[in-house]
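Why this split exists: single-chain examples teach little about how molecules sit against one another. For that reason, every record in the complexes split bundles all components of an assembly together and asks for one structure covering all of them. Below is a record exactly as it appears in the raw files.
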Amino acid sequence: MGPLIPQEIIGQDWNLFIAFVVGIGFGFILEQAGFSSSRKLAGVFYGYDTVVLKVFFGAAVTAMLGLLFFSLFGWIDLNLVYVNPTFLGSAIVGGIIMGIGFISGGFCPGVSFSAIAIGKIDAMVFLGGIFIGIFMFAEAYPLLESFYMSGNLGALKLSDVLGISGGALAFLVIIAALVMFWLGDLAEKKFPREEY
Amino acid sequence: MMKTKYMNPYLAGVLLGLVLLMAFFFSGRGLGASGAVKSTVVSLVSTIAPEHAANSPFYSKYIGEGKSPMKSWLVFEILGVLVGGFLSGALAGRLKLKIEHFPGISANRRLIFAMIGGILFGFGSQLGRGCASGSALTGMAVLSLSGFISMATMFGTAFALAYFFRKNWI
Protein backbone atom coordinates (compact mmCIF):
# COMPACT_ATOMS: atom_id res chain seq x y z
CA MET A 1 0.00 0.00 0.00
CA GLY A 2 2.81 2.45 0.75
CA PRO A 3 4.33 4.86 -0.05
CA LEU A 4 0.99 6.54 0.41
CA ILE A 5 1.47 9.86 -1.38
CA PRO A 6 3.25 8.68 -4.57
CA GLN A 7 0.43 6.11 -4.98
CA GLU A 8 -2.17 8.84 -4.33
CA ILE A 9 -3.74 6.96 -1.42
CA ILE A 10 -3.32 10.26 0.39
CA GLY A 11 -3.65 13.42 -1.73
CA GLN A 12 -0.56 15.25 -2.96
CA ASP A 13 -1.73 18.31 -1.00
CA TRP A 14 -0.79 16.52 2.21
CA ASN A 15 2.83 16.02 1.21
CA LEU A 16 4.17 19.31 2.59
CA PHE A 17 2.16 18.88 5.79
CA ILE A 18 3.70 15.41 6.25
CA ALA A 19 7.13 16.97 5.62
CA PHE A 20 6.47 19.49 8.39
CA VAL A 21 5.35 16.78 10.85
CA VAL A 22 8.34 14.56 9.97
CA GLY A 23 10.57 17.60 10.50
CA ILE A 24 9.15 18.21 13.98
CA GLY A 25 10.01 14.63 14.93
CA PHE A 26 13.47 14.92 13.35
CA GLY A 27 14.29 18.20 15.12
CA PHE A 28 12.88 17.08 18.47
CA ILE A 29 14.91 13.87 18.52
CA LEU A 30 18.14 15.57 17.36
CA GLU A 31 17.86 18.08 20.18
CA GLN A 32 16.88 15.46 22.78
CA ALA A 33 19.90 13.35 21.81
CA GLY A 34 22.22 16.33 22.36
CA PHE A 35 22.97 17.01 18.68
CA SER A 36 22.40 20.71 19.33
CA SER A 37 25.88 20.81 20.89
CA SER A 38 28.88 20.91 18.55
CA ARG A 39 31.20 19.83 21.38
CA LYS A 40 29.12 16.70 21.91
CA LEU A 41 29.08 15.99 18.15
CA ALA A 42 32.82 16.50 17.69
CA GLY A 43 33.36 14.14 20.64
CA VAL A 44 33.10 11.15 18.33
CA PHE A 45 36.35 12.14 16.61
CA TYR A 46 38.23 12.25 19.92
CA GLY A 47 36.46 9.36 21.61
CA TYR A 48 35.01 11.26 24.56
CA ASP A 49 31.40 11.18 23.32
CA THR A 50 30.19 8.74 20.69
CA VAL A 51 26.52 9.72 20.66
CA VAL A 52 26.71 10.63 16.93
CA LEU A 53 27.85 7.15 16.03
CA LYS A 54 25.13 5.50 18.12
CA VAL A 55 22.26 7.67 16.94
CA PHE A 56 23.37 7.71 13.30
CA PHE A 57 23.84 3.95 12.98
CA GLY A 58 20.87 3.19 15.23
CA ALA A 59 18.67 5.25 12.91
CA ALA A 60 20.15 3.85 9.70
CA VAL A 61 19.71 0.24 10.86
CA THR A 62 16.17 0.86 12.15
CA ALA A 63 15.00 2.50 8.92
CA MET A 64 16.83 -0.09 6.78
CA LEU A 65 15.17 -3.00 8.60
CA GLY A 66 11.84 -1.17 8.63
CA LEU A 67 11.90 -0.82 4.85
CA LEU A 68 12.93 -4.46 4.32
CA PHE A 69 10.17 -5.78 6.61
CA PHE A 70 7.53 -3.37 5.24
CA SER A 71 8.45 -4.61 1.77
CA LEU A 72 8.29 -8.26 2.90
CA PHE A 73 4.81 -7.71 4.38
CA GLY A 74 3.69 -5.93 1.22
CA TRP A 75 3.21 -2.64 3.07
CA ILE A 76 5.52 -0.64 0.83
CA ASP A 77 6.59 -0.84 -2.80
CA LEU A 78 10.34 -0.26 -2.71
CA ASN A 79 10.33 0.60 -6.43
CA LEU A 80 8.50 3.81 -5.50
CA VAL A 81 10.98 4.77 -2.77
CA TYR A 82 13.60 7.23 -4.00
CA VAL A 83 17.14 5.83 -4.17
CA ASN A 84 19.73 8.58 -4.59
CA PRO A 85 21.83 7.94 -7.70
CA THR A 86 25.57 7.37 -7.45
CA PHE A 87 27.96 9.69 -9.30
CA LEU A 88 31.28 8.25 -8.21
CA GLY A 89 33.69 11.20 -8.50
CA SER A 90 31.45 13.90 -7.09
CA ALA A 91 30.19 11.65 -4.26
CA ILE A 92 33.75 10.95 -3.07
CA VAL A 93 35.08 14.51 -3.40
CA GLY A 94 31.83 15.97 -1.97
CA GLY A 95 32.09 13.60 1.01
CA ILE A 96 35.72 14.58 1.66
CA ILE A 97 34.87 18.31 1.55
CA MET A 98 31.95 17.71 3.93
CA GLY A 99 34.25 15.75 6.26
CA ILE A 100 36.59 18.76 6.53
CA GLY A 101 33.51 20.90 7.12
CA PHE A 102 32.38 18.55 9.90
CA ILE A 103 35.64 18.64 11.88
CA SER A 104 35.96 22.44 11.37
CA GLY A 105 32.38 23.43 12.11
CA GLY A 106 31.30 20.68 14.51
CA PHE A 107 27.88 20.48 12.86
CA CYS A 108 26.27 19.03 9.80
CA PRO A 109 23.43 20.99 8.16
CA GLY A 110 20.53 19.05 9.71
CA VAL A 111 21.75 19.25 13.30
CA SER A 112 22.69 22.92 12.90
CA PHE A 113 18.97 23.72 12.53
CA SER A 114 18.16 21.99 15.82
CA ALA A 115 21.00 23.97 17.44
CA ILE A 116 19.72 27.23 15.95
CA ALA A 117 16.28 26.44 17.38
CA ILE A 118 17.66 26.57 20.93
CA GLY A 119 19.75 29.69 20.36
CA LYS A 120 23.27 28.51 19.47
CA ILE A 121 24.95 31.47 17.77
CA ASP A 122 27.77 29.28 16.40
CA ALA A 123 25.10 27.24 14.57
CA MET A 124 23.64 30.41 13.06
CA VAL A 125 27.10 31.35 11.73
CA PHE A 126 27.52 27.78 10.43
CA LEU A 127 24.20 28.15 8.55
CA GLY A 128 25.43 31.46 7.11
CA GLY A 129 28.44 29.50 5.84
CA ILE A 130 26.18 26.88 4.21
CA PHE A 131 24.39 29.65 2.31
CA ILE A 132 27.73 31.01 1.09
CA GLY A 133 29.03 27.55 0.16
CA ILE A 134 25.92 26.69 -1.86
CA PHE A 135 26.01 30.08 -3.57
CA MET A 136 29.68 29.51 -4.47
CA PHE A 137 28.83 26.09 -5.92
CA ALA A 138 25.92 27.54 -7.89
CA GLU A 139 28.06 30.30 -9.38
CA ALA A 140 30.91 27.91 -10.18
CA TYR A 141 28.53 25.28 -11.58
CA PRO A 142 29.37 25.86 -15.27
CA LEU A 143 32.99 24.99 -14.46
CA LEU A 144 32.08 22.00 -12.29
CA GLU A 145 29.28 20.53 -14.35
CA SER A 146 31.30 17.93 -16.25
CA PHE A 147 32.87 16.61 -13.03
CA TYR A 148 29.49 16.78 -11.25
CA MET A 149 27.92 14.55 -13.89
CA SER A 150 30.85 12.14 -14.28
CA GLY A 151 30.90 8.50 -13.14
CA ASN A 152 27.12 8.12 -13.29
CA LEU A 153 26.17 4.65 -12.04
CA GLY A 154 22.45 5.42 -11.65
CA ALA A 155 20.35 4.44 -8.63
CA LEU A 156 22.72 1.64 -7.69
CA LYS A 157 22.41 -0.29 -4.42
CA LEU A 158 25.45 -1.53 -2.51
CA SER A 159 23.80 -4.96 -2.24
CA ASP A 160 23.79 -5.20 -6.05
CA VAL A 161 27.45 -4.16 -6.23
CA LEU A 162 28.33 -6.93 -3.76
CA GLY A 163 25.95 -9.39 -5.39
CA ILE A 164 24.08 -10.16 -2.15
CA SER A 165 20.47 -9.67 -1.08
CA GLY A 166 19.29 -6.52 0.69
CA GLY A 167 18.67 -8.58 3.82
CA ALA A 168 22.23 -9.98 3.80
CA LEU A 169 23.66 -6.46 3.46
CA ALA A 170 21.44 -5.24 6.31
CA PHE A 171 22.76 -8.10 8.45
CA LEU A 172 26.36 -7.04 7.72
CA VAL A 173 25.50 -3.42 8.56
CA ILE A 174 23.97 -4.54 11.88
CA ILE A 175 27.15 -6.45 12.76
CA ALA A 176 29.26 -3.40 11.80
CA ALA A 177 27.00 -1.16 13.89
CA LEU A 178 27.29 -3.44 16.95
CA VAL A 179 31.09 -3.47 16.65
CA MET A 180 31.11 0.32 16.42
CA PHE A 181 28.79 0.67 19.45
CA TRP A 182 31.19 -1.53 21.41
CA LEU A 183 34.22 0.50 20.24
CA GLY A 184 32.33 3.68 21.12
CA ASP A 185 31.76 2.48 24.68
CA LEU A 186 35.43 1.51 25.00
CA ALA A 187 36.51 4.96 23.75
CA GLU A 188 34.18 6.75 26.17
CA LYS A 189 35.73 4.80 29.05
CA LYS A 190 39.23 5.58 27.85
CA PHE A 191 38.67 9.30 27.27
CA PRO A 192 36.14 10.28 29.94
CA ARG A 193 35.00 13.89 29.97
CA GLU A 194 32.28 15.84 31.63
CA GLU A 195 29.17 16.21 29.58
CA TYR A 196 28.34 19.38 27.67
CA MET B 1 26.96 5.20 33.94
CA MET B 2 27.42 8.93 33.97
CA LYS B 3 24.30 10.95 34.71
CA THR B 4 23.00 12.52 31.54
CA LYS B 5 20.55 15.24 30.63
CA TYR B 6 20.06 13.81 27.17
CA MET B 7 18.02 10.93 25.78
CA ASN B 8 19.63 7.50 25.68
CA PRO B 9 21.46 7.45 22.30
CA TYR B 10 20.18 4.00 21.30
CA LEU B 11 16.59 5.05 22.01
CA ALA B 12 17.16 8.28 20.07
CA GLY B 13 18.60 6.26 17.17
CA VAL B 14 15.60 3.94 16.99
CA LEU B 15 13.15 6.87 17.22
CA LEU B 16 15.02 8.78 14.50
CA GLY B 17 14.93 5.64 12.35
CA LEU B 18 11.15 5.44 12.83
CA VAL B 19 10.77 9.10 11.78
CA LEU B 20 12.81 8.31 8.66
CA LEU B 21 10.65 5.22 8.03
CA MET B 22 7.54 7.40 8.34
CA ALA B 23 8.94 9.73 5.66
CA PHE B 24 9.51 6.73 3.35
CA PHE B 25 6.06 5.26 4.08
CA PHE B 26 4.14 8.49 3.49
CA SER B 27 6.20 10.42 0.96
CA GLY B 28 8.44 7.75 -0.59
CA ARG B 29 11.54 9.77 0.28
CA GLY B 30 13.88 10.33 3.21
CA LEU B 31 15.17 13.18 5.31
CA GLY B 32 17.42 16.05 4.26
CA ALA B 33 18.66 19.49 5.17
CA SER B 34 21.03 21.10 2.66
CA GLY B 35 18.32 20.94 -0.02
CA ALA B 36 16.21 23.40 1.96
CA VAL B 37 19.10 25.90 2.01
CA LYS B 38 19.60 25.35 -1.71
CA SER B 39 15.92 26.20 -2.34
CA THR B 40 16.35 29.39 -0.32
CA VAL B 41 19.52 30.36 -2.23
CA VAL B 42 17.73 29.73 -5.55
CA SER B 43 14.76 31.87 -4.44
CA LEU B 44 16.96 34.70 -3.24
CA VAL B 45 19.09 34.80 -6.39
CA SER B 46 16.10 34.54 -8.73
CA THR B 47 14.40 37.42 -6.87
CA ILE B 48 17.45 39.68 -6.71
CA ALA B 49 18.91 38.88 -10.14
CA PRO B 50 16.18 37.16 -12.20
CA GLU B 51 18.06 37.42 -15.47
CA HIS B 52 21.25 35.95 -14.02
CA ALA B 53 19.25 33.05 -12.53
CA ALA B 54 17.40 32.35 -15.79
CA ASN B 55 20.69 32.19 -17.71
CA SER B 56 22.49 30.01 -15.17
CA PRO B 57 22.58 26.26 -15.80
CA PHE B 58 22.27 25.74 -12.01
CA TYR B 59 19.40 28.03 -10.93
CA SER B 60 17.40 27.53 -14.12
CA LYS B 61 16.89 23.85 -13.17
CA TYR B 62 14.71 24.93 -10.25
CA ILE B 63 12.84 27.97 -11.55
CA GLY B 64 10.45 28.74 -14.39
CA GLU B 65 6.78 28.15 -15.16
CA GLY B 66 4.90 26.40 -12.37
CA LYS B 67 8.02 25.84 -10.23
CA SER B 68 8.35 27.53 -6.87
CA PRO B 69 11.54 26.49 -5.06
CA MET B 70 10.20 27.32 -1.59
CA LYS B 71 7.20 24.98 -1.93
CA SER B 72 9.49 22.02 -1.48
CA TRP B 73 9.33 19.00 0.82
CA LEU B 74 12.68 19.80 2.43
CA VAL B 75 11.82 23.45 3.13
CA PHE B 76 8.71 22.37 5.08
CA GLU B 77 10.63 19.58 6.78
CA ILE B 78 13.30 22.05 7.96
CA LEU B 79 10.62 24.43 9.27
CA GLY B 80 9.45 21.41 11.29
CA VAL B 81 13.00 20.75 12.52
CA LEU B 82 13.16 24.30 13.89
CA VAL B 83 9.82 23.80 15.68
CA GLY B 84 10.78 20.35 17.00
CA GLY B 85 14.20 21.50 18.17
CA PHE B 86 12.66 24.50 19.90
CA LEU B 87 10.04 22.35 21.67
CA SER B 88 12.70 19.92 22.89
CA GLY B 89 14.95 22.75 24.07
CA ALA B 90 12.04 24.42 25.86
CA LEU B 91 11.02 21.20 27.64
CA ALA B 92 14.61 20.51 28.70
CA GLY B 93 15.30 24.11 29.75
CA ARG B 94 18.07 24.53 27.16
CA LEU B 95 16.83 27.66 25.35
CA LYS B 96 19.65 30.17 25.56
CA LEU B 97 21.44 32.48 23.15
CA LYS B 98 25.09 31.49 23.34
CA ILE B 99 28.27 30.72 21.45
CA GLU B 100 29.27 27.25 22.57
CA HIS B 101 32.99 26.52 22.38
CA PHE B 102 35.81 24.60 24.01
CA PRO B 103 37.09 26.83 26.87
CA GLY B 104 40.64 26.63 25.45
CA ILE B 105 39.69 28.73 22.40
CA SER B 106 38.06 32.13 22.02
CA ALA B 107 34.46 32.61 20.91
CA ASN B 108 35.72 34.38 17.80
CA ARG B 109 37.89 31.44 16.83
CA ARG B 110 34.88 29.15 17.25
CA LEU B 111 32.78 31.38 14.98
CA ILE B 112 35.47 31.57 12.30
CA PHE B 113 35.75 27.78 12.19
CA ALA B 114 31.96 27.43 12.25
CA MET B 115 31.80 29.72 9.21
CA ILE B 116 34.53 27.78 7.37
CA GLY B 117 32.81 24.49 8.23
CA GLY B 118 29.48 25.80 6.96
CA ILE B 119 30.99 26.98 3.67
CA LEU B 120 32.67 23.59 3.10
CA PHE B 121 29.50 21.71 4.04
CA GLY B 122 27.39 23.89 1.75
CA PHE B 123 29.73 23.42 -1.20
CA GLY B 124 30.33 19.72 -0.52
CA SER B 125 26.64 18.94 -0.12
CA GLN B 126 25.92 20.29 -3.59
CA LEU B 127 28.81 18.39 -5.15
CA GLY B 128 27.93 15.21 -3.25
CA ARG B 129 24.16 15.53 -3.88
CA GLY B 130 23.14 15.75 -0.23
CA CYS B 131 24.54 16.09 3.27
CA ALA B 132 24.73 13.78 6.27
CA SER B 133 20.95 13.41 6.56
CA GLY B 134 19.98 13.45 2.88
CA SER B 135 22.79 11.44 1.36
CA ALA B 136 24.47 9.43 4.11
CA LEU B 137 21.61 8.50 6.50
CA THR B 138 18.75 8.29 3.99
CA GLY B 139 21.02 6.74 1.37
CA MET B 140 22.19 3.99 3.71
CA ALA B 141 18.62 3.19 4.72
CA VAL B 142 17.72 2.49 1.08
CA LEU B 143 21.06 0.63 0.65
CA SER B 144 22.22 3.15 -1.95
CA LEU B 145 25.92 2.88 -2.89
CA SER B 146 26.05 6.67 -2.82
CA GLY B 147 24.84 6.71 0.81
CA PHE B 148 27.60 4.36 1.93
CA ILE B 149 30.22 6.39 0.00
CA SER B 150 29.01 9.64 1.60
CA MET B 151 29.06 8.15 5.08
CA ALA B 152 32.52 6.61 4.70
CA THR B 153 34.18 9.63 3.08
CA MET B 154 32.56 12.15 5.44
CA PHE B 155 33.32 10.35 8.71
CA GLY B 156 36.62 8.98 7.38
CA THR B 157 37.93 12.44 6.42
CA ALA B 158 36.83 13.97 9.72
CA PHE B 159 38.55 11.16 11.67
CA ALA B 160 41.70 11.46 9.55
CA LEU B 161 41.93 15.22 10.17
CA ALA B 162 40.83 15.17 13.84
CA TYR B 163 44.44 15.33 15.04
CA PHE B 164 45.07 18.63 13.19
CA PHE B 165 41.93 20.24 14.60
CA ARG B 166 42.35 18.92 18.16
CA LYS B 167 43.17 22.33 19.68
CA ASN B 168 39.66 23.49 18.75
CA TRP B 169 37.94 20.69 20.65
CA ILE B 170 40.07 19.12 23.41
